[in-house]
């Protein structure tokens, strides 16, 4: 078993992640249907209206009068909607949450065994793959990807790409407002602290007590869901899902998180991302149904049901 944390040893890991994402964009983002076709409704338990599927968003060029200020306001609205969504859960939502909570609790009983497996199987190849996951789930990488996506959409007039950048912003803010305080409040010891998986030091900012939940996993799963639902291409979805999975596994490989941290982080990432995409799609659908028409006496407001 190696000692220490295997991380940041492969500078080419960044290039590998970037190449994967660029390949997805070249293959899908500039095709006829990418970022413009129907957005498939995912099965999200954090949305309060899961029985009504969302439909397509406007094609590029729609709502050309939008501004950065309006986008910022909508990002804030979507973020607060997502953070407060548990207050609007129904019985099915609570049932699903209970299932994931049960899986997390169950994982606690095998946390130590899973850690031992990873620490006994450290290899150079494993180090490289783990670093790919660490890069993809890193906050700085996520911020860069978000700014690039939003900026390119704004510059080239690709409305759906711009919207995708907003959704990624919503996701990062949700992680900031929920995951960061949660890990401080819980204060669970990281595996490398060698205090066991049931060691807690609540209300501490020390990094060695910031294990629950995995922020890298939350971000990686969330980004993959947002990008997958907007690109709407099977092969891109497979690649993005693989990056998210590698990130989750890498956090255990580098001894930063327990299995239970990763399970709950992945669940939060999946459901928060779907809530965000659903909110934006519903807003755009409502905007398509609302229109103004000039009349001799003023303006007529129309809404299609």
Please summarize what this structure is.
The chain is mainly alpha-helical and 305 residues long.
Tags for this model:
mainly alpha, 305 residues, 62% helix, 10 helices
Give your account of this protein's structure:
Helices cover 62% and strands 4% of the residues. The chain contains ten helices and two strands, in the order H-H-H-H-H-H-H-H-H-H-E-E. Helix 3 (91-108) runs antiparallel to helix 10. It has a two-stranded antiparallel sheet. It has one domain (12-303). The longest helix is centred in the last third of the chain and has 31 residues, at 259-289. Mean pLDDT is 81; it is low at 36-64 and 299-303. The chain is globular, with a radius of gyration of 21 Å. It is mostly helical and 305 residues long. It has helices at residues 12-29, 68-83, 91-108, 111-119, 124-136, 139-156, 159-186, 215-231, 234-253, 259-289, and strands spanning 290-295, 298-303.
How large a portion of the residues is in β-strands, by DSSP E? Answer: under 5%
Distance between the termini: 64 Å
Major sheet description: 2 strands, antiparallel
What overall geometry do the principal axes of the alpha carbons give? globular
The average pLDDT score comes to 81
* Strands in their spatial order, largest beta sheet: 1-2
Number of extended strands: 2
Low-confidence stretches: 36-64, 299-303
Structural class, by secondary structure, is mainly alpha
Radius of gyration: 21 Å
Helix run count: 10
Helix content: 55-70%
H and E string:
HHHHHHHHHHEE
What is the number of independent domains?
A: 1
């Amino acid at each position: 078993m190696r000692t220490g944390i295997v991380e940041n040893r492969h500078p080419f890991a960044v290039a590998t992640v970037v190449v994967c994402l660029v390949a997805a964009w070249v293959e899908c983002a500039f095709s006829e249907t990418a970022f413009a076709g129907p957005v498939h409704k995912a099965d999200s338990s954090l949305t309060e209206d899961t029985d009504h599927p969302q439909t397509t968003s406007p094609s590029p060029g729609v709502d050309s009068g939008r501004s950065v200020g309006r986008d910022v306001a909508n990002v804030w609205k979507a973020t607060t909607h997502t953070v407060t969504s548990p207050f609007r859960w129904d019985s099915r939502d609570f049932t699903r949450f209970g299932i994931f909570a049960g899986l997390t609790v169950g994982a606690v009983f095998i946390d130590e065994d899973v850690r031992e497996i990873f620490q006994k199987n450290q290899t150079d190849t494993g180090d490289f793959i783990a670093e790919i996951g660490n890069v993809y789930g890193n906050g700085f990488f996520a911020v860069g990807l978000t700014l690039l996506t939003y900026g390119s959409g704004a510059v080239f007039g690709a409305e759906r790409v711009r919207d995708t950048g907003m959704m990624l912003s919503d996701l990062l803010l949700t992680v900031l407002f929920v995951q960061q305080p949660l890990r401080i409040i819980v204060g669970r010891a990281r595996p490398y602290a060698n205090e066991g998986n049931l060691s807690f030091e609540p209300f501490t900012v020390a990094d060695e007590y910031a294990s629950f939940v995995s922020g890298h996993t939350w971000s990686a799963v969330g980004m993959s869901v947002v990008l997958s639902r907007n690109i709407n291409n099977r092969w891109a979805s497979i690649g993005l899902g693989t990056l998210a999975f590698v990130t989750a596994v890498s956090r255990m490989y580098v001894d930063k998180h327990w299995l239970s941290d990763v399970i709950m982080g992945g669940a939060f990432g999946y459901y928060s991302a779907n809530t965000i995409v659903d909110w934006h799609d519903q807003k755009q659908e409502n905007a398509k149904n609302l229109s103004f028409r000039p009349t001799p006496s003023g303006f007529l407001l129309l809404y299609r049901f």
